[in-house]
Write a structure and sequence with these properties.
With 412 residues, this protein is an alpha/beta fold. The chain has two domains: 209 residues, Rossmann fold; 125 residues, Response regulator (Rossmann fold, 3-Layer(aba) Sandwich). The chain has twelve helices and 14 strands. The strands form three sheets. The chain has a seven-stranded mixed beta sheet, sandwiched between helices. The chain has a five-stranded parallel beta sheet with strand order 2-1-3-4-5, with helices on both faces. Helix 9 links the parallel strand 8 and strand 9. The longest helix is centred in the first third of the chain and has 20 residues. The relative contact order is 0.13. The structure holds phenylalanine. The site of phenylalanine (PHE) has 14 residues, from helix 11.
Amino acid sequence: MTKKFLLITTLIIVASLVLSACAPKPTAAPATEAPAATEAPAATEAPAATEAPAATEAAAGTLKIAILAPLSGSVPTFGVSTRDGALLAIKEWNEKGGVLGMQIEPIVEDSQCEADPAVNAANKVIDQDGVKYIVGEVCSKASIPVSEIAEQKHVVQISPTSTNAQLTLNPDGSTKQYVFRACFIDPFQGTVGAKFALDNLKATKAFILFDQGNDYVRGLAEAFEKAFTDGGGQVVGKETYTSQDTDFSAILAKVAEAQPDIVYLPDYYNIVNLVTAQAKEKGITAPFMGGDGWDSADLDKTAADGGYYTNHYSPDDTRPIVQDWVKNYQAAYGSVPDALATLAYDATNLLLAAIQAAGVNDPEKVKDALAAIKWDGVSGTITFDQFHNPIKSAVILQVKDGKIVYVTTVAP
Ligand code: PHE
């Protein structure tokens, strides 16, 4: 190896180290020990390495991946977890040499779990930053409008967590070619909740409370109602509210009067906290039940005590892939990963694996690779059906004595 070559290689390695050091870091304490560090990433290898992988890396440039997450607004824990899960996946890939020889550059945008900020963020990353791949948004009502842009502009979008069926579908029912998700969908999630209420809780009378203006909440309420009544149960009341409401006493009075066995409240944790606290004050003892939107470190476990919710994953799952993930995430951020962090990690890995499999940085080829992929994720093995939905199990969790307790797993 010539001196000149050695010098160039060294410069390139230094440049790629600086680049990866510049990548936005999660606010929580970063990993002291990188999960993939033991695999001796190319960058730490001696410059004399004969194959000089770093040379191709620098020549190929960087690959930008946008992460659209609600870091502010009504559900900030969703955004923080999503960002942190995605960044950890990117960090691991970068330490192993990146993808197609490129280091990955995350671009994080706060999309607030709302349509307008999410659309603005999507347009910004595509038009200004030249991004061709988006991980996000979290909330269906934000991901759905983003998906229309992604489809139109031929940008690959994978939402880690948006469960509303419409995300991947065009109005005529055909599949959006560029849009994917890493989670199951609400027709499944709602059915799992209804069956559990009927079979395990022996509920026969359900009351449903939902926000008509939230695609996710409305879709899940509909799925629950259908499955609960199909299964022989009776919906004894249904009331709506808006995301601006703070006083739920009028609708809770109706719940108290109807004396249901279960109250289905498939909203996000911020609303769940308010409604369950006010229900307790009213003396309502029927258990509440919800969906993945309850998953937050900020769920009020006193107010929601005794409640159940369907979710994508449990950190108590004993499979090694789950336990390794929990350990790595804890080392990086000092907390146990929730479903949002886990799905963001899986979604980012899926996307990067598809880019690798496509062998070329071209969204048209990457979307085909993604559609055909089989990937062992933390949240389960992922293959896509014709609508770009993975077929996966759900878990049921209970809020009990200040803790979240794993109850059971339900396969599709
Ligand atoms: N499924 C929710 C939606 O589509 C988002 C979510 C997923 C929230 C997982 C919490 C946990 O809007």
